[in-house]
Specification:
This protein is of the alpha+beta class and about 625 residues long. It has 4 domains: about 325 residues, Alpha/Beta hydrolase fold, catalytic domain (Rossmann fold), CATH 3.40.50.1820; about 110 residues, Immunoglobulin-like, CATH 2.60.40; about 110 residues, Immunoglobulin-like, CATH 2.60.40.10; about 80 residues, Macroglobulin (MG2) domain (Immunoglobulin-like, Sandwich). About 15% of the residues lie in helices and about 40% in strands. Strands 1-2-4-3-5-6-7-10-9-8 form a 10-stranded mixed sheet, sandwiched between helices. Strands 13, 14, 16, 17 and 18 form a 5-stranded antiparallel sheet that branches. Strands 19, 20, 22, 24 and 25 form a 5-stranded antiparallel sheet that branches. A hairpin with a 2-residue loop joins β19 and β20. α5 packs across α6.
């Protein structure tokens, strides 16, 4: 009912103002908006589907609105809600679904964690551990798989916190979008470090009396003024600084606001920037449903309809980088390097849908020390890159004489067809500080099957301080059902042993509380995994009913990667003939570690590969009808 009343109100306003307009252009604009209002449909007439997928270990939710004329290869507008909004509120407020149904495009409504977005700002409302940019990127791939969308016509808009997130997406993920339209949201201070790789058309709507995202900046939050925000995009798009300005007709004389349209043109690749300056306007979506307006958001302008203006802007653009080659995933190892010299292995998986000619390379830089180097990657099957022309690129390099520090590795793809360089969003790290090792430990039995373990770490390095150190433990022992807790050690100076700074412990839950246990300790610095050590002990207590394995098992070798020795553990369920062999990557047998009869039990063998070159090897266990093969990596 409210929707019908609002339409009637708009129609009365438009008809009245059509009589007052003195130009053909103003009359045509009124007629176009009137047609949209008359023929727009309710959301119930189309389809809305809710779904989710796991990203970053979190179940991320989204909703999809399909227009009545839905078909394959349709354009998509991704809509980002404001802080605290949900999908129903965003749709009820903007009524963008009605316009999408008549104009014929798909709407997607991702949901931020806690109904907020990680805009990259230093703000108490932000969610610094939420990779919302990565979530949106994976969402695009998910949408294409389910709805076969037009990948060249993907657009993004949002209001308030969603407008800020729209601009972060434009900066870090702009190569996947054709255009964006933020409403009532400016850039954060950290945008000074953003480096968009390509000009992107932008429609920007903002009220001069916005009480939250202040038009002239100056709030307690670290967000820029509208002028500074526009200048960022003008510079990125290489637009002319001479703007075209026009005051639009005051269609609704009762809304106490007017609209100035400011256009920045002559931009690179026709990536125009249009700013709708809502004079006296508040923190609002122009033309929105008045019964859903932001509380305390100020004046709602009705001279333009944001849905109409945004889509009329979007439909002029297609994404020229839709087939751009870019880095998808990266592997860098080892995490810890010997200070005397070690080989770094870098492998990258590339997305290259049209097989563009590309150059892939890594840049290595010290976090503190003044060191930088580069490494060219190849896809020829000869540089630790698996098979030729499989879009898996790799290479190795011997690094020696490095000062103790944490080093960052960034991956770049230079698409020679599009003349664009893409920097992978997630750098990798390695260090030659340390190593950090377990110095001593104490174990306490809390219950029949529950144990508590606490330990210290030692920094065996000479000059480098390990900062913000934490540790976790893992085991492949099937007698252990779960392990809880993370130990925090803060900073550890070279040559020093650190006590457990927070006096926290790991709790180990077992099935029967008996046996020799070996744990792998993963040690982190500032959240990056660098060091690994083992921790073994024997727990006395209740006797096992049997020590006989309940199944055949071949465990992952440890350490892995290794140089030059590694241990291989396996379990035999019953007495029988057993062989354990090692093969190279071409399937050629390298060595037989064991061949003969063994009784049921668990066994450990050590393989010394000192005389073999670095590379990938496979080890295979045959015991009766049981056959299992695992991969291991020798690095020298």
């Amino acid at each position: 009912m409210n929707n019908i009343i609002n339409k009637i109100k708009w129609i009365v306003i438009l008809v009245t103002n059509m009589k007052k307009t003195k130009t053909i252009k103003s009359t045509i604009q009124c007629i176009l908006i009137l047609i949209v209002l008359i023929f727009s449909q309710n959301i119930s007439n189309a389809q809305t589907e809710s779904s989710s997928f796991e990203f970053g270990g979190i179940n991320r939710k989204y909703s999809v609105f399909l227009p009545q004329n839905y078909q394959a290869n349709m354009p998509v507008v991704i809509c980002l809600h404001g802080l605290g909004q949900d999908v129903a509120n965003f749709i009820g407020y903007t009524r963008i679904n009605e316009f999408a149904d008549s104009a014929g495009f798909i709407l997607v409504f991702p949901i931020g964690i806690g109904k907020g977005w990680n805009t990259g700002a230093v703000d108490s409302r932000a969610l610094p551990n939420s990779d919302d940019v990565g979530f949106i990127s994976d969402l695009i791939d998910t949408l294409n798989a389910h709805y076969n969308i037009d990948m060249a016509r993907i657009y993004c808009t949002g209001i308030s916190n969603g407008a800020q997130m729209t601009q972060r997406i434009a900066a870090e993920l702009g190569y996947r979008f054709a255009a964006v339209a933020p409403v009532a949201g400016t850039l954060p201070d950290r945008a000074v470090n953003w480096n968009p790789i390509y000009p992107l058309p932008i429609l920007y709507i903002h009220g001069t009396k916005d009480p939250y995202a202040l038009y002239n900046g100056g709030s307690n939050w670290d967000y820029w003024s509208v002028e500074k925000t526009l200048n960022f995009w003008i510079q990125n798009n290489n637009c002319s600084l001479t703007a075209e300005s026009i005051l639009l007709p005051d269609i609704d004389t009762l809304d106490n606001s007017t609209v100035e349209k400011i256009s920045y043109k002559d931009c690179s690749n026709n990536s125009d920037i249009i700013h709708y300056k809502i004079i006296n306007g508040g923190h609002q979506w122009p033309g929105a449903n008045a019964s859903f307006v932001y509380w305390g958001g100020g004046v709602l302008n009705n001279d333009i309809n944001a849905n109409v203006e945004i889509w009329n802007f979007f439909k002029n653009y297609e994404n020229p980088l839709v087939d751009m080659a870019r880095v998808k995933t990266v592997e860098v190892f080892p995490e810890f390097m010997n200070t005397k010299g070690d080989t770094i292995f870098v492998k990258a998986r590339i997305t290259n849908p049209e097989n563009h000619p590309v150059s892939v390379y890594a840049k290595i830089k010290g976090a503190v020390v003044s060191f930088s180097d580069s490494l060219q990657l190849y896809d020829d099957g000869l540089h630790f890159d698996e098979n030729p022309n499989d879009n898996i690129w790799g290479n190795t390099k011997l690094l020696s004489g490095l000062e103790e520090d944490k080093y960052v590795v960034n991956l770049y793809t230079h698409d020679l067809s599009d003349s664009v360089i893409h920097k992978h969003r997630f750098p990798k790290y390695f260090t030659n500080i340390g190593p950090l090792v377990v110095d001593n430990f104490e174990i306490t039995q809390l219950d029949t099957n529950v144990f508590e373990i606490e330990y210290e770490l030692r920094n065996d390095g000479l000059t480098g301080e390990a900062k913000s150190v934490t540790a976790e433990v893992f085991t492949t022992d099937t007698n252990v059902t779960s392990i809880t807790g993370t130990l925090n050690f803060r900073n550890i100076l070279p040559g020093q042993v650190s006590t457990n700074a927070t006096h926290s412990t790991h709790k180990i839950y077992t099935k029967n509380g008996l046996g020799s246990m070996e744990f792998i300790v993963h040690i982190f610095s500032s959240g990056h995994f660098f060091w690994s050590d083992t921790l073994a002990f024997t727990v006395t207590g209740i006797e096992n009913e049997t020590n006989q394995p309940i199944e055949y098992e071949l465990k992952q070798n440890y350490p892995n990667p290794f140089n030059p020795t590694t241990k291989i553990n396996f379990a035999i369920q019953q007495k029988g003939y057993v062989t354990l062999k090692v093969y190279n990557i071409l399937g050629k047998e390298i060595v037989t570690l064991y061949s003969g009869e063994k009784p049921a039990g668990t066994y450990e063998l050590t393989w010394d590969a000192a005389n073999l070159p670095s590379g990938v090897y496979f080890y295979q266990l045959l015991a009766g009808s049981f056959v299992e093969t695992k991969k291991m990596l020798l690095m020298k």
